[in-house]
Amino acid sequence: MENETVSLEAIVNNNLTGRDLQEFNRIYYGKREHNELKLKDSSIAAAKDADFEIAAYGFPAKKEHTRPPRIVKVGLIQHSIAAPTDRPVNEQKNAIFAKVKKIIDVAGQEGVNIICFHELWNMPFAFCTREKQPWCEFAESAEEGPTTRFLKELAVKYAMVIVSSILERDENHSDILWNTTVVISDTGNVIGKHRKNHIPRVGDFNESNYYMEGNTGHPVFATRYGKIAVNICFGRHHVLNWMMFGLNGAEIVFNPSCTVAGEAGSEYMWNVEARNAAITNCYFTAAINRVGYEEFPNEFTSADGKPAHKDLGLFYGSSYFCGPDGVRCPGLSRTKDGLLIAEMDLNLNRQIRDRRCYYMTQRLDMYADSLRKVLDLDYKPQVVHENEK
């Protein structure tokens, strides 16, 4: 990936200094300084040794008279796969486990309370191939599978809530596959799971060959550290999906994703969608994307008339956090594994709701009535024409 741009931040920092840089930061990120937090020397050394990026930023709130601060440390892990896609399934999975454990260990020594991976982090994103074997063999039980068992030990060791996106095989219901995120408590118990609500049917991302829309609604998981929810990948394009997690009380909404750059990619939207959701719903958002190129044994086409190929393109990382006020931190690299940490005061959510009154002015009754009419088979759009009586 030598010829790839490292990050937007690298471009900016290499070309702007002084007041110009501060003004860019103010206009783009929402503040002149990034409130970067000091990391332990041992964490920096471990990240260098394991070849991953590490950064940490603060999202403070104003001090209140009646509530103490609600400080929580949240981590995001983005990474590439760790073994060629033609290797045995368990070898590929275990190689990723070994890579990720080093990052989780650093998160643990930094006191991270909640950590989240990108979508389907324990396998290649093989759904572009439309082949069933061997990729369906990566599927496992959400509650008792090897990935959950691996993470349960780390959750207990570091008193850490872990948000893990996997390919689930529902052994109680005819072995059906689901795109599922498992939430593991700091006690090591599985709090619950959420299945992906919106399934793409776009070019290489025609995932309905493997799993369909989820059936778990919009659950919010009440953890020791705060109320969290998971808007899986393609759900970020659906504003009502974000909204329902907020209405159910989410304080942090994670968006574990697998998305690529290039002509048919989403990179120009990436920095907008989770940030817009944070603003309109007055909660923290965390956008996480995988990294690197993934080459598959057999060629596949993208239904665009172009030649067959063996990879999807660059998964561009760039994971980031955004606060309910719309202020965001710099993203991780486009090309490198990384751990991004945010120290956030959850009191900021209510402070912003009080200031901006978005929920008070939401008019859910009006939209509920309008949407009910839209679903009617005889619905007529409300269009007014010139000279219409």
Overview in brief:
Helix content is 28%, strand content 24%.
The end-to-end span amounts to 63 Å
Strand arrangement within the widest β-sheet reads 1-18-2-3-4-5-6
Radius of gyration: 21 Å
Beta percentage is: 15-25%
The string of secondary-structure elements, in order, is: HHHEEHEHEEEEEEEHEHEEEEEEEHH
Shape: globular
Fraction of residues in helix: 25-40%
CATH topology: Nitrilase/N-carbamoyl-D-aminoacid amidohydrolase
Report the CATH architecture.
4-Layer Sandwich
Overview of the molecule:
InterPro entries: Aliph_Amidase/BUP (IPR050345), C-N_Hydrolase (IPR003010), C-N_Hydrolase_sf (IPR036526). Residues 72-346 form the CN hydrolase domain. It holds the Pfam family CN_hydrolase. Keywords: Hydrolase. The chain has 389 residues and is of the alpha/beta class. It has one domain: Carbon-nitrogen hydrolase (Nitrilase/N-carbamoyl-D-aminoacid amidohydrolase), CATH 3.60.110. The chain has helices at residues 8-15, 18-29, 41-50, 89-109, 146-158, 239-247, 267-281, 347-356, 364-374; strands spanning 53-59, 71-78, 114-117, 161-170, 176-184, 190-195, 201-202, 205-206, 221-223, 226-230, 252-257, 284-289, 291-292, 295-300, 309-311, 315-316, 320-322, 338-345. The strands form 5 sheets. The protein has a 7-stranded mixed beta sheet, sandwiched between helices. A 5-stranded mixed beta sheet has the order 9-10-11-12-17, covered by helices on one side. Strands 7-8 form a two-stranded antiparallel ribbon.
